[in-house]
Amino acid sequence: MAFELIINLLILGFSIFCFFYVGSTMPKSAVNELGAEQWPQAIIIILVLALCWNIFKLIRDHKADMGASFKKLGSDTVNFFKSKLFIGMLIVVIMSLMYEPVGFMVTCLLFLISYGYLLGERRPLNLILTSVIITIILYIGFAVLLGVLLPRGQISFLRNFALFVESLVPTF
Q1: CA 127, CA 38: separation in Å to the nearest integer?
Q2: What is the pTM of this model?
């Protein structure tokens, strides 16, 4: 409980920082329209309210065992770093760092394979086949239907592979 409370407080502080950062760095929109700075700020306000509610519930529900919970903080922290949740978060961070240099297709494929393995799928053929199908669906959905330019990668053979795959898919 103490670990969860500390994480909630850290996320709350970071969210408040993000609210002011977005407000100070984005160009101001007209008074009568919702601009680029107001949508993220609205989402952050909802996040801050949800975090405040969660912190309130944590304190209210665990008021009696708050001291014992802080004594278990060390073991809770170690257990968190060993959990699938933390490993999943690491996989997402690694994916975000690989996205530009490696490109969408390879990054998405590796992400889906590793996350599927983390979730318990141990059949390699099933992991690879499912990941390839989902990558193709995501590529067609974003690049073809929505017209989003996905990164091709900065490594030459991966970029050439992405260009080859793009040439196979018809555009609308």
Answers
A1: 40
A2: 0.67
First to last CA, the chain: 52
Q: Would you say 103 and 153 are in contact if contact means Cβ atoms under 8 Å apart?
A: yes
pLDDT tens by residue, 55-77: 999 889 888 777 777 788 788 88
Give residue-wise pLDDT tens across range 16-36.
999 999 888 887 777 777 777
Say which residues have a Cβ less than 8 Å from residue 130's Cβ, sequence separation at least 6: 112, 116, 121
CB 48 within 8 A of CB 16: yes
Cα 20-26-30 angle, rounded to 5 deg:
110
> At 23, is the secondary structure helix, strand, or coil?
helix
Axis-axis angle for helices 104-118, 84-102 (nearest 10) = 170
Say which residues have a Cβ less than 8 Å from residue 40's Cβ, sequence separation at least 6.
Answer: 18, 22, 26
- Give the pLDDT confidence of 108-144 residue by residue, as tens digits: 999 999 999 999 999 999 999 999 999 999 988 888 8
Instruction: State the Cα–Cα distance between residues 162 and 105, nearest whole angstrom.
Output: 7
